[in-house]
């Protein structure tokens, strides 16, 4: 069976999200919609739900259509990614839902990346964590 594949992007709304978005640091959640399922990654591991059924803190932002694939090819790619995106391995800046979506997009459509603004805040957070030593000294 051939299914339509697309990336769904949601804005995560919190107290200062409008201010952060205005300077390019918005927070986003992504999921990979495959037919009538949307795959995502959380601390529970790789999961799926109906498209658009995300946390109430999220509002739909955009969709990027990637193409059509056989369901069995998608299943195979997801099963391979389960080894990397395991339950308990979620990290807000190093391995989040957007990292999973990009890894799945690349596995299905080689070279496809999520738009750079999606994970900008996580990249900046990872840089800060890397630059600051555990004791806070430089």
Distance between the termini: 55 Å
Mean pLDDT: 86
**Helix segment tally:** 4
Beta-strand content: 25-35%
Strand-pairing-aware structural class: alpha+beta
Q: Rough shape?
A: globular
How helix-rich are the residues, as a percent range? 25-40%
Radius of gyration using CA atoms only: 16 Å
What's the count of strands?
Answer: 5
Poorly predicted tracts of residues: 133-138
What topology emerges from the helices and strands here?
Elements: E1 2-12, H1 17-22, E2 28-34, E3 37-42, E4 45-49, E5 58-70, H2 71-81, H3 97-108, H4 120-131
Antiparallel strand pairs: 1-2, 1-5, 2-3, 3-4
Write a structural description.
This protein is an alpha+beta fold and 138 residues long. The protein is 30% helix and 30% strand. The protein has a five-stranded antiparallel beta sheet with strand order 4-3-2-1-5. The N and C termini lie far apart (55 Å). The C terminus is likely disordered.
Q: Can you describe this structure in just a few lines?
A:
This protein is an alpha+beta fold.
Task: For this entry, give a set of tags.
5 strands; 138 residues; five-stranded antiparallel β-sheet; alpha+beta; 4 helices; disordered C terminus
């Amino acid at each position: 069976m051939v299914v339509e594949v697309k990336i769904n992007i949601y804005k995560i709304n919190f107290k200062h999200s409008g201010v952060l978005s205005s300077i390019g640091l918005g927070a986003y959640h992504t999921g990979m919609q495959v037919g009538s399922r949307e795959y995502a990654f959380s601390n529970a591991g790789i999961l799926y739900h109906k498209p658009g059924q995300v946390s109430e803190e999220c509002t739909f932002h955009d969709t990027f259509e990637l193409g059509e694939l056989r369901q069995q090819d998608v299943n195979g790619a997801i099963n391979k990614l389960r080894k990397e995106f395991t339950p308990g391995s979620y990290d807000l800046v190093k391995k989040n839902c957007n990292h999973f979506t990009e890894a799945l997009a690349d596995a299905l459509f080689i070279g496809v990346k999520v738009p750079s603004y999606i994970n900008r805040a996580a990249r900046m957070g990872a840089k800060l964590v890397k630059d600051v030593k555990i004791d806070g000294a430089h």
